Amino acid sequence: xxxxxxxxxxxxxxxxxxxxxxxxxxxxxxxxxxxxxxxxxxxxxxxxxxxxxxxxxxxxxxxxxxxxxxxxxxxxxxxxxxxxxxxxxxxxxxxxxxxxxxxxxxxxxxxxxxxxxxxxxxxxxxxxxxxxxxxxxxxxxxxxxxxxxxxxxxxxxxxxxxxxxxxxxxxxxxxxxxxxxxxxxxxxxxxxxxxxxxxxxxxxxxxxxxxxxxxxxxxxxxxxxxxxxxxxxxxxxxxxxxxxxxxxxxxxxxxxxxxxxxxxxxxxxxxxxxxxxxxxxxxxxxxxxxxxxxxxxxxxxxxxxxxxxxxxxxxxxxxxxxxxxxxxxxxxxxxxxxxxxxxxxxxxxxxxxxxxxxxxxxxxxxxxxxxxxxxxxxxxxxxxxxxxxx
Length: 390
Known about the structure:
Elements: E1 2-5, E2 15-21, E3 28-29, E4 34-39, E5 44-48, E6 53-58, E7 65-67, E8 71-77, H1 96-100, H2 113-121, H3 140-149, H4 167-182, E9 185-193, H5 195-212, H6 218-232, E10 239-241, E11 244-246, E12 253-255, E13 257-259, E14 262-264, E15 267-268, H7 276-291, H8 297-300, E16 305-309, E17 328-332, E18 335-341, E19 347-360, H9 366-381, H10 384-388
Parallel strand pairs: 12-16, 16-17
Antiparallel strand pairs: 1-8, 2-4, 2-7, 3-6, 4-5, 6-8, 9-19, 10-11, 12-15, 13-14, 17-19, 18-19
Helix pairs in contact: 6-7, 6-9
């Protein structure tokens, strides 16, 4: 027998919920085949078979809470198992929901179990989707894009739908409320004229893309500007631990990303050592992993400061909530042409973005918070400062 064991859940994660078994007792199991999906308060984890055989026993059912190292099932090594058990069943033991969706096209076996599950739940035929994954496989992101691309007319149904909160959603709610209850949170604002950054980006975006095989976005400019400001104001990059303040001489910047399951904050490591192209490529990689549900615990832990961009959704202004145990978060917003009085007294329409810095007033004074935003503003309004380290 081989044990099916709950793997390492990551730093500060004590338990997980069994979200889905992809095999039934007696099913044939191949080595490295996905057996079960576990959901923690940060990520979804797939547990694969360590040996080939038959699934002998399931010790933790869907919905059960398990801990790292728990044995949740057994595999009888070398047993033939029932190969037909993993195929779509027509028996009367199937759940009513399954029979209601029996008319939905079956997802391709080449796609992962998480993709097949999402496709089945949303009545999506994956054979009609052009896959962006390896060997043309369809990813969760492809299914989501298909759903967002065109929806059918709404079907009449009940006026309310009650869905149990996932562990991720509960964790988001708990952490945000904990942040409000713990930190002496305050938000300060400023505005930044995006004219020069937009002109620089427009001038070099094609050459940048040809040279580095990535798009030149605004986030790399703001990341560089924020890191420079953090170096000058170390309290914004610090955290409180008991009665101590921990000042950090590294700059791991969390980037808030909205997904179908909720907000996640993957972390870009050592941003002070990354080039513009390095930042852009890392952002693309992390955003893709977030959309496809492929973020690991290592991707989500250890950030020292966070940047969130509500402007991509059209937000004009907001007061972002600190991501504990961090002490600061920079909020970016949409760019809107606004009338600005120029130094010569003339009035011009300029592309303006509002900035917001939420900070923990226990260790960051108002002077430091305001100075931080001013430094970011100066570097964005004159991006040559970033390149010259000024």
